[in-house]
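Q: Two folds, back to back.
A: First:
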Amino acid sequence: MRPITAPSRAALVALAPALLPALLGAGLFALLAGGVLFAPQAPLFGTDIYDRLYLALVGEGRFDLPPRVLRLEGHYTPDGTGYLYHGLAPLLTRLAAGWAVDLSRVSLAGVSVWLWAGLGTALWHLTLDGVLGQGMATSRRRRGWARLGLAVLVWLAGPGLLVAANHALFHEPLAVAYAAVAGIAWLLVAVARGRLSLGAALPLLALGAGLVLHARPHLAPGLFAAVVALVGLDLWRRRRAGLAVAALTLLVLAGAGALLLWLNLARFGDPWLMHGSFAPSGLQYGTYFWGGEDPAGPRAQAFEAEGRFSPWRLPANLFIHLFDLRLGGPLAPVSEAIGAIFEGLKGGVGEIRLDGPWTGMAYLWPLWLLLAGVGLGAAMTRHPVILIGLGGLLAGTLLMLCYPTVTLRYKVDMVGPLGLLAACGLVRLGPWLAALPARRAARVGRLGGLLIALGALFSLATAHDYAQAFLTDWQVFRPWSLGECLDMARARGFDEARAAVLCRP
């Protein structure tokens, strides 16, 4: 066995360009997720919901929460019992730390968002930095600048910044899925580059897909299908030698799926029920149940007429996710033109709700998009493992583009195929960059630096605005007093005894 020795000075110097921006980024994420930088002007909505759910499960063995905790974001049975319908994966943070923290007094939401956003960004950094030098046999100085630029791109001009910018209820499952998808991409690239066998990666890929299922379920079907296809590929290559790994991988997938069905049964009384409706039924949207949303309104009608996911929404949603930008003054015609194109693409698909901040991916992540475009024609994209994994990641993105709401956090759901293609693009660019004459390399470096700076500027400005989203002084997220809750319960026809139970603290 080789003795463990301290890293040499040369190794530390080579590591510094990648490590220093990562440390700076992790610190920035902590300030954002902790509400220190860009501090919200009012408390954020739902930061205690996962803490209270953990306490309800551990202390009372129940999945429901009082309406005064869930408010309009809960989904309700006809007797007023409220359930959280979001993914339950953030409970992992509570399982790890709940024994040491009084969750009735302290929320772990900020810590959880920081942890998962940082882990996901670190995994994307490892993935992209690992392929940057492939075939890039060039000077140490040029490699150092390239690694520095890549680290800044990932940590200060990447999606993790927006994940960490807000720790309201919606962002904990988003952060978990972001980290899980980054881990899946890292595994796929490691297999494609020969650093990890497919057999060794399969159970881990299944764990990642299962975690996504319990965080952002709409992203999971494509990933499950991809993992099953990779099991088939491994069996075709190794025949009987791959049977044990195949069985373990499929068992992990089946376990994750069975757990979701059990959770649905425990919460909603139906293993196949995932969410409520805008009509009288066994499970209803909180906005409908408490009278906050008219079932004849445009959003409810869009769900009714076009379905929750419709492929006809895809062109308009893709365009607006890429290019939306709200400008005033002399630049207002630019925004008006973007809006007109969106309306033209939308056609007759009904209402598509647009939520701010309105910043398209073309401005947030321009270099990511450029690298992904290069990756479309890269040889590594045609590697069977990458091709299958890319298909699984892309399926979730396409599904998200078919949804009748466009909002900033949904862009993070699309990072999987974007980042994986960017890794393929870097593999393709490495030899080309290494062969460039010094003068041309300098020009390419300046262009890359400009795109990174543009992305960082838009990302920080958007994070500043996004930190003020989902505040409890917004009408839809405001707290309910005891008297107000009792009045609402009576208006729903509940007697005094039931109203008192529903409106408990």
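A: Second:
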Amino acid sequence: MGIFLALGLIPKSHRLMNALAAGNGLLHLVMSCIALLMLDLPGRLGESLYLDHLNLYVELITALGFTAAAFYARGYTDSLMEAGELDPRNLKTFYLAFNLLLVTATVALFSDNLALFWIFAELTTVCAAMLVAILSARENIDAALKYVFIVSGAMLFAFLGLIFLFTLSEQALGEGTLNWTELEVHVSEFSPALLLASFAFMFIGFGAKAGVAPFHTWLPDAYARAPSVSAILSGLMQNLGIYGIIRMYALLRESSAAPQASSILLAAGVFSIALASFSMFQQRNLKRLIAFSSVEHMGLLLIGIGIGTPLALFWALFYMLVHVLVKETLLFSAGILHRQYRSNMREDMRDVFKLQPRAAWGLILGSIAIVGMPPFPLFPAKFFILLESAAVSPYLTLAVLLMLILASASFANFLLKAFSKVTVEEENEKDRHIPRTHAGTEGVKSKVFIKTFAEKVDYDENRLPNQYLVRSGMRVPAVFMLALAIALGFYFPDSLKDLLDAIILELGYV
């Protein structure tokens, strides 16, 4: 990993920098697979690192999302530089932050010590903020600062939770520790009240990292302003927060504070889904719509974890994987449309099926998948989580189901209003007898069309507007991630089932 970081600072060629980033992701992916197949898990890796099925599973998801984003990044950053939105001198900084994000997240996931996990989780915040601010526009810098202040501020509460936990272990064992492996052995000896307080504080920090309401306010701005290559924020940053919540709740399940901790998770989950569902309906910005969708899905994940049954956790873990596949499909497709229209607003998206048919279908199929329609794999995950929630409260299930329907309607509403827009260029051509290839600020009556295209780019007689800003390599990762999601909808590999069962067993869900 260090070799890839060092080599990434040497080349001046964008192609080579991108190849090193993709190689970094592939290396993490391959090494995680080898560890799952070859190592006797769980096991230690030196003094501070600990490998088990859970952190390797999250690492696999992270590396997969990162690798897809790395391949997407080449065409996307080329288009940003060609449009003058990214200074070529910042390209090395971009790839340095990009690679560092994966490395710091990996160390955080494999850390046995909670303090080490906290430190490297905070470092991922810095790296992610660099990716948001890389375009140097004022709005991007504001979004990056907002992200840092909210997440880092919330992580200070998590630090207080660590202090509580260390004090509890010191009282029970005579010597304080923050190692996961030691805490899970002795957690039944801790004071339930103080343990719950520690969980509550840490939930604030990890919940902000995951984008859970009400700590989600950084998410819409970060999604809207960050380059679409930062789709890894969904696959990496949010899963890192959920990982910390799963670990902490697994600790509390061994104490009498488990019911109260479950109530916190369920309440936060319902609140996240409710806030996101009502916020999504009026969204006109595509990336903000996708951002609020992430808040909704994090809420459903919290419900799956908070229910506390093996079946609910099984499908919550599966949900983490599929959510990344589908969400990156949506964000990659949104990035293609952003380069086409230089906008994320649905009012500016005209002739989508003519100009970018693959991105249009990526958004349609991705939207169908993200709302949990069969045969896409989020359908069984949502179904079984809701089925398990009925055992907690039928009213809870009904409320969540209604809000999920509202969220589905939001996607349908956005797509219908965006994709039904067609330019009136041909009608104006008939009236004014102006050649299509010379449509511009003079000769087109449609003000919307002028705003969308003519004021933003110069025309080329042989190309459609902004077509040159969309590179063919940007479409491949979106198609690949969508294909994986569809495949999981039809076939559930035995190896994946065995991996999820092993995680549940190691966490003590028996």
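Q: And?
A: The first helix runs from residue 2 to 8.
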